[in-house]
Automatic annotation (TrEMBL):
The keyword Phosphoprotein applies. InterPro entries: CheY-like_superfamily, LytR-like, LytTR_DNA-bd_dom, Sig_transdc_resp-reg_receiver. This is Two-component system LytT family response regulator. Pfam families: LytTR (PF04397), Response_reg (PF00072). The modification 4-aspartylphosphate is found at D53. Keywords: Phosphoprotein. It comes from the Bacteria.
Amino acid sequence: MKALIVDDERLARKELISLLSVHEQIEVVGEAINVDDAFEKIKQLKPEVIFLDIQMPGKTGFELLEMLDHVPKVIFVTAYDEYALKAFEVNAMDYLLKPVQPERLEECLSKLISNETNSELKEEDILDRSDKLTYNDQVFVKDGEKCWFVKLQNVRFFESDGNYVKVFFGENKPMIHRSLNALEERLDSRHFFRASRKYIVNLSWIENIETWFNGGLVVHLKTGEKIEVSRRQSTKFKELMSL
């Protein structure tokens, strides 16, 4: 896996690179000294995993993730144990405390490689043909002090709320500062459908469909939630679902 090290401390970067050198599965392809540097190098080098410091001069590691459309796998490397535990849910990501211990790094990499092996796409990688986010991509969502790494397949639907969009997954519905139109352009239309001005729905979460009084449709999700498909979009939806 190609890796990028993002840390403003040169000695911390060199120490981590040295520790990673004994792990053949990881290839360090670059270093970044701050968020803006990392943003450019991620676009250029396309790493599969980034080792990311949280507290850096200027922008934080959180802000870097918010800037990215496609988030690589992320391992946080931080000196702030209490801060990391507060900011992230236990199963949402992994993090290493400075100074990094070789045993802890090995444990982290073992989990990383295992997850990568289990999530490999059997179909041709969609990113080779399109810059759209794929169904198996994960995105970073931050709302206040809570942060999540969410696979798009686990998002039931998106709901427009002014200049924000609510992201519905599990019991959560955090808000991101993005328009529904911009989000629609990035999503794979084979899996996500623009039901109306207000909603984009994940087709795999639909359990059944009913006709609505105004010529539109209502889709019932497996969770019991209902999403109205506008009359204008109903024709497209019927064609898509072969109704």
